[in-house]
Amino acid sequence: MMTRQANTERDAVAWAQFWEDEGSDAHVVNSEADAQALRAVWRPFLEGGLSSGGRCRILDVACGNAVVAEQAVSIAAEHGGAQHAICCDYSEAAVRAAVRRLDGASVSGIVADAARLPVPDQSLDIVVSQYGVEYAGATAFAELARVVAPGGAVQAIVHRVGGVIDRRCQDDEALLLATLDSGVFKSFMTLLKIRHKAAQAGLEPAAAKPASARFARSVERVETARDAAGLGAARSHVARLLTDLGRVATNPLAYRLDEMEQWVEGQRHALRGFANRMQSMSRAARDEGQVAILADFFREGGLSGVSVASFDPAHHRLSAGWILRGHR
Length: 328
Ligand SMILES: C[S@@+](CC[C@H](N)C(=O)[O-])C[C@H]1O[C@@H](n2cnc3c(N)ncnc32)[C@H](O)[C@@H]1O
Hints:
Helix 5 (140-147) runs parallel beside helix 11 (288-300), helix 6 (164-181) runs antiparallel to helix 8 (209-228) and helix 7 runs antiparallel to helix 8 (209-228). Helix 4 (92-101) links the parallel strand 2 (83-89) and strand 3 (107-111). The protein folds into 2 domains: 16-163 and 285-327, 3-Layer(aba) Sandwich (Rossmann fold); 170-280. The protein is 54% helix and 16% strand. By secondary structure, it is of the alpha/beta class. The chain is elongated.
């Protein structure tokens, strides 16, 4: 069986970068159809735990901006129950965004690794994770089980090897790496420098013709990779980048060289972070044998009714993940 590496420092940096750059407006799930399909999976589970109208403690693990905790809070409000939501992620910026998102509800944030939750044993009524806990490795599923209170329940939606998200991440990663390897940034800066130098020396822009041709060839390489890529977020990111590069390259003297150096460095950094994040998502995905092991961690943690189901939204040809459940 293929073993997947546990989370690395690079993954942590990539996620921190994502949440810091995007803040509370960030959406990991960016199609409304996907968001709806996810909400439809969560609703019956959350209603099961929240419909009594009593007090309920909810934990959203690897919460990102806490869309699941938010749904739980709104369902609890429908049933007139009091609830306290705890949003946990190892990115501080994500936890900040989550707490802001649930503004008005009874909410607290924890910055922690999902494999080591600073939460007492059996202290939570509803434990949820949406495409999150699996990043922390298989033993993090034992952590989820540990914190479920008697009468409480846990549900996790988990990335799937060969699923629609895994495929998209691999596709996006390939395009981002192809862009970084295309030479587009280097040829862009060379062109700009030559045009600035030529202007200072009073030479015609034609002096930059070979540099211009090199830049055009590297743009073509990126365009070829972009056209071969699927319709993921990387494609629109790279399309925007090409537009920006093209705008500057047609009128380079309107831009300061030092500012352009800095801008290019920022763009490279963003592409690398994006590619690392895509890699971390693919690495988190589990195949059928691996998800059975995750379910065993729930059983060994004393949970009953442990089940694994495939998450198959009707609008996708491929599965979108696994749904793991258990209760105490
Ligand atoms: C794909 S996002 C999902 C976010 C959110 N649950 C959602 O569905 O929108 C994965 C999240 O896991 C967090 N994460 C990754 N590894 C983690 C770990 N070891 N411990 C805690 N959080 C982690 C990331 O910071 C990120 O917010």
